[in-house]
Amino acid sequence: MPKLKTKSGAKKRFKVTASGHVKAGQAGKRHGMIKRTVKFVRNARGTTVLADADAIIIKKNFLPYA
């Protein structure tokens, strides 16, 4: 079998932790901060761990060797 290619967009957006969880940046912070609550903006800093259902899709389809 030939080697599978990693999606280049996915390798820029996701990291896989040592325990197998998928880390991604928080959504909803590109624009429109004035309508967001301060609590939302504060809690959306940094990265987050994806839900298991989403992580399975990312690892299976986009990061085959992660």
Strand content: 15-25%
| Number of helices in the DSSP assignment | 3
Q: Specify Rg, calculated over alpha carbons.
A: 15 Å
Instruction: Give the overall average pLDDT.
Output: 96
Order of helices and strands: HEEHEH
Q: What can be said about the biggest beta sheet?
A: 3 strands, antiparallel
What is the number of beta strands? 3
Keyword list:
3-stranded antiparallel beta sheet; alpha+beta; single chain; 66 residues
What is the secondary structure topology, with strand pairs?
Elements: H1 8-13, E1 14-16, E2 22-25, H2 38-43, E3 47-49, H3 52-62
Antiparallel strand pairs: 1-2, 2-3
Description:
- A three-stranded antiparallel beta sheet has the order 1-2-3.
- 35% of the residues lie in helices and 15% in strands.
- By secondary structure, the chain is an alpha+beta fold.
- The chain has helices at residues 8-13, 38-43, 52-62; strands at 14-16, 22-25, 47-49.
- The two termini are 18 Å apart.
- The radius of gyration is 15 Å and the shape is elongated.
- A hairpin with a 5-residue loop joins strand 1 and strand 2.
Concise structural overview:
The chain is α+β, with helices and mostly antiparallel strands and 66 residues long.
